[in-house]
Each structure stands twice: as C-alpha cells, then as structure tokens.
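Why does residue order matter? Because the sequence determines the fold. Keep that principle in mind as you read this record.
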Amino acid sequence: MVTQHADEPLLRLTWTDRVTGAHGYLVVHSLVSGLATGGTRMRAGCTMSEVEDLARGMAAKTATFDLPVGGAKGGIDFDPRDPRATEVLRRFCQAMRPWIDAHWVTAEDLGVPQHVIDEVFADLGLEQSYHAAIRRAADPARTLRRVQAGLNAPVPGGLLLGDVIGGYGVAQACLGAAAAWDWSVAGTTVAIQGIGTMGGGAAWYLHEAGMRVVAVADAAGTLYDPAGLDIPALLQARDAYGEIDRDAVPGHVERLPRNAVLGVAADVLVPAAISYALTPDNSYDVRAAVVVEAANAATTPEAEAMLAARGVPVIPDFVANAGAAAWAWWLLLGRVGAEATDSLLKLRTEMQAKVALLLGAWNADRVPPRQTGWEFVTARENAVTPAESALTIP
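Structure:
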C-alpha cells in the first residue's frame, strides 16, 4: 500500500520523559511499502511543528531520489550536550519501539551522531538504526554486514564514508551549481554556516575539489579568509561538538560574529547549521549568487521569496542534503556495495543531474528551484503504483 504525499501527516506522536520531563516527537508523514525513513534530532527547543516540517521534507527526498519508502522524522527537545542526553535518547527509542521495530528507519541528525544512535539501538537489542528495513531483507545478516561495511568504508582524510556522505552530496550540489553557470571550480568561493557532520563534510570535499572555502561559522563565531581557509587543519581542530579550537587558527584569519557568515562575499552560501537560519530579517545580508541548503528547512518561505526576487536561487534541502538518505537506501537495497568509490560516483552523478534540472528551469524562466523540485516530487508520487513500490532488500 502507498500513502500519497499530502500536507497532513499520517501520524504524530508525543512522548514525555518521566526522568527529565523532556518532550520527544515522532511524525510519520507517509508510508510506502509499510516503511518510512528519517533521522532523529535532539536540540533544546525542538517542536512538533519543526519535526512535522522535517518529515514532510523527508517524504520529498525519498520521492526525488526514487526510493521505495516514505518520510518520517524524530525530534527530542533536550540539550545534546547534557550528560543525560544519551539516556534520554535511549528512553525515547524504547518508547518508539513499535514503530522502530516495524516501520521507522532512522539515523543521525542534528545533535545525534550516527555512532550514538547505533549504540542505543545495540543496547536495545536491535543492532543498527536501519533495523526496520534490515529485518525485512531476504538475508538480514548479510544485509547488516553490507550496511556496516558501507558505513565504515574508509575515505581519504582518515574518515568513514557513513560520516561524510551527506556532506559529500552537498558539495556535489555546489559543484553542480558552478557547472550550471560555467564557473571555474578554482574561481568559485563558498561560505559555510556550520562545521559539524554536514557542513564539515561539504567543506572537506569542496576544498578537495579546488573551490575556495573563504568562511566557516561555528557556535563561537565566523572564521574568514578571502584567500581560502585551510579546511583540513580547521576540521582537525574541531571538538566533539563541532567547534573549532581558536588556538589552532592562524593569526591572519579574521574572527567575525557568528552570523556574519551569511553576509560574506562568496559565490555560494551553504547554511549547514540550524533550521530557519535565513529569515526575512537577514536575507538582505546574503551576498552569494546561490544558496545551497545543507541544513533541513534552512530558509523560511518568506526569505526564499525575497532571495528569488533579488535573483538568488535556493537549492532546496530535499535535493541538496538528501545524499545521506539516498545513499543509505542504495546501500540497503544493494544498489551500491561497500566500496566508497562506487557510492561517491553514483551520488555525484545523481546530485549534479538534479541540480542541473533545477537551475536549468531557473536560468530559462526564473522558476524557483523548490517549485521545480516539488513538481518532480508530485509527478513521481502520482506515478507510483503498489507494484512499483514493492520493497525487495537482498
């Protein structure tokens, strides 16, 4: 059975932690083949409406990348730096166990690294956060081995593929934008808000490709160098919360206020930190030619309309940051194996093709990329039949 995409979600659940009083939310926007996918985030101030927006975005991501699964999202209103955070996450997952067992495939998100959620699932006897899909496989043990091998495949820089694949997809979206306007890679500059898993991965791969990353921002402020930052060194200087040790930053690098990154003179702006980072109040600060959303719901609808009126397109999150979700399902479905090169090639090809489609419509008729993307999503969902959505996991 296929539940079509609609504004109203299929399910909203609210949970209250009896120990801390924290609230948690699960929103299942749609089920396809009885499954929905979407990460679990944790941040102080997380709301049901936020999680609902993110679940809707996940449904769009799965449709954009032709995945036979619906969209969902989990969220917990709690500070991930609190020493009790992992126990709160564990109790939340235990409470959501009926959905986690049978329907909801989750993964890392803001405030919840993949290794932490996998540890929680292991403690609950579920082995890995993709449990609901793996248990349906023809050979669950073999599928689990393939997933674990893919997540732990080494990539340059001493990193693991599962930790960087989302940022790699964002980098490919940026490179696709440069290609759409025939910009030289070496002559293209980028500013990145957020240097955690997604922003850090994007920065690494853009630097590796030869783009100049001129600004990055973390919770402590913005670091700016018009000649280009030493991204590998800055990433090496991050702590567990994605903040850069300022003692490791060269003296010539400018220290600016945290939100100054939005107004830096750069060709591409990548908001990779929090939802709703770009608002009507700060959209006029943006000096970039294009915004590539690495964070979920990084731009409010009003801000996006204001940017479009100024000739600045926004590559929406359900395309630009969907690489991790798409790749996870390619791995589950056996469309890629454990070799990192195969996964990177497939994601690069698919992401750049989608960005070319979005910016082609923008360049020809000034159709906002989000509108083109939603038209694709709607067409895909309307074309899906139960037979096409049948899920076979080898």
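The chain has a mean pLDDT of 92.
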